Amino acid sequence: MTNRDKPGEAVLLELRGVHKSFGEVEVLKGVDLTVARGEVLVVIGPSGGGKSTLLRCVNLLEPVTAGQVLLEGDDISRPGVDLDRVRRRIGMVFQQFNLFPHLSALDNLTLAPRKLLRTPRAEARDRAHALLERVGLSGKAGSYPRQLSGGQQQRVAIARALMMNPHVMLFDEVTSALDPELVSEVLDVMRDLANSGMTMLCVTHEMGFARELGDRLVFVDGGVIAEQGPPAAVLDGPKEDRTRQFLRKVLR
Question: How far apart are CA 52 and CA 44, in angstroms?
Fold first, then answer.
């Protein structure tokens, strides 16, 4: 447990028996998981083990093959759900920045609130400036993605996700495409979010971040949760052979 307040008892997100198949390939094989409001859940595991698919099912970028995804008690995996309404409550940041190259940082942030929420332009711009300042980019509002470093682009992407006032943030290996010297500036923003009480699911290979700020660490392999527990307990004394094998490689 970190030095933050403990997450609340209220369950914000729940996965019940979630399966996901792509044709004949079953990537998730019955995942059960609960995430409390304010919890920072760190997901680790080998490539191809199902980590990113798990996040994409939470955000409904991939429909589940079987099982349920509940957000604040609402079954968001049911047929006919309003996808736009759900995604307003779930912010997601990807490995690739996915910024619109023809828009400035400011316009990248204000586009969705103005189009989807009908937020007045001035209000959207004020909030965007505040969020750019929060992620350390107050002087970059007029810059285009090509004028920004990878770390700066990723921080703009985080600020863009925060513009919709999400109830939970999903991070899918957001530092893996960055040069090593740029990783810390993105992790600093994530650290600030965690300390502010944001509910977060983070797929990452940054074990120092997992140890410092994770409330719980989940090891996903072969489409199932193979082990979970407090980060220090799993990293320092894994119970499962497969977890030990993985950690021997990543903690060298």
Answer: 10
**DSSP letters for 117-182:** S---HHHHHHHHHHHHHHTT-GGGTT--GGGS-HHHHHHHHHHHHHTT--SEEEEESTTTTS-HHH
Tell me how far apart the alpha carbons of residues 190 and 197 are, in angstroms, rounded to a whole number: 11
Give the other-Cβ count within 10 Å of 68's Cβ: 14
Q: What is the predicted pLDDT for the residue at 3?
A: 47
Lookup result for tokens 């970059």: 140
The pLDDT value given to residue 1 = 45
Q: Which two tokens stand for residue 229?
A: 């527990």
CB 149 within 8 A of CB 137: no
pTM value is 0.93
Q: Measured on CA atoms in the order 155, 194, 50, 32, is the torsion positive or negative?
A: negative
Nearest to 28 by CA among 70, 69, 88, 86: 69
Q: Residue 130 contacts by C-beta under 8 Å, 6 or more apart in sequence?
A: none
For the segment 202-234, what is each residue's pLDDT rounded down to a tens digit? 999 889 999 998 999 999 999 999 999 999 999
Q: Is the dihedral of CA 84, 90, 96, 101 positive or negative?
A: positive
